[in-house]
Structure formats: structure tokens, C-alpha cells
Amino acid sequence: MQTVVYAPLSFRSLKPGATFHRPNAHKLVELSSPAIEVMTDLQCIAAATTYPEATLAQATQAMVSRSVRLLLVTDPIGDIVGLITARDTMGDRPIKYIQLNGGKHADLKVRDIMTPLEKIQVLPMADVEQASVGHIIATLKSVNRQHAMVVDVDRLSGEETVRGIFSITQIGRQLGVTLQTFEVEKAFAQISSQLAGSLLAA
User: Is the CB of residue 174 less than 8 Å from the CB of residue 38?
Assistant: First the structure.
């Protein structure tokens, strides 16, 4: 067996004024751009997760630290059991839960208000690959949601793996629209209004 000798690479000094690459998650897009360009690809960016027994405060802090508004809820072996969003933790869902079940807000767990696995709806990656940004906005608007998960399906086993996540906030950012609200209807209204304004300006 031939031995391969690996020579070391040469260093050089970094030039003044150098900056650094940033993830292209903020790449500007248009409605006709491929949908894949606004999807958070979990093959490239680690998923933000929490666990069912975490408190709502812990879940909120996890979102803040990762600059996201959705967490996958996983069991000890990493299987998805639900999801929770900032809209869940900061909206009226905790209040409604307490009204029905009693208790204190500080005692609420992720499992109390998360969307359980059986109620999670997903988009097939095969469909997303053929879609545009406009299709994703229309899809989210049709179900009045800020997020959608995308799954890959193993052709042999049929096993599903979450491949990516769409966020209306992220899409708005990449369209050049700054969203100031958690309210879904207002978010879509802001996108429509600002895009219409930019088209008129052009």
C-alpha cells in the first residue's frame, strides 16, 4: 500500500479591511424566485429544539438565543413529538389552557401548549423543489400560519425526515419587508402592502 505524504499548507497575513462570510439566509429574493432560497435547510443549519418538560420561559429563551420563532419538540432519542412557536408561548394559548385546566403560567410546560405530532402538517420536499417564493406565501396565507415544515421521504423505507422550515418572517426579510408583528394576518398584509409599494415605485 502506497503511503501518501500530506504537505502542510502555507499561512499568510490577513489583509486590513477583511470581513467575513455570513450565511446567505438573508439573500434577497423575488416572488418568482425558487422556494428553496427562503427555506431554512436543516442540512446546513442545526434545528432549534426543546423538550416536552421544558417551561414556557425556557422555550422562549431558546427561541431568543437562536433568533427563531419555532422550536421542534423532541423526545430523549431525538424523535419529533411536536412543535411550539413564539405565537404559542406569547399569545393567548397559555391563558386559554389555564382557564380550562387551572394552574399558574409559570408552571406551564411545552407539552401543555405545543402542537402535537399528529396535528403537524408538512410540505413534501419534492413539491417545494418545484415551487416559487410566491407559492409558499400563498400556502402559508391559505392556512393562516407563520411557519411550515418540509419533509424528505426515503424512497425505500418511506421514513420521513424534516428537511427544512419556512418562516413568513424570514421570507419577508428576504423580500426586503420588515415585519413588526406576530399576528399572521397583519404579517401578510404588510408583505402585500410593501411589495405593492415597491412595484409602484419601480
Answer: yes
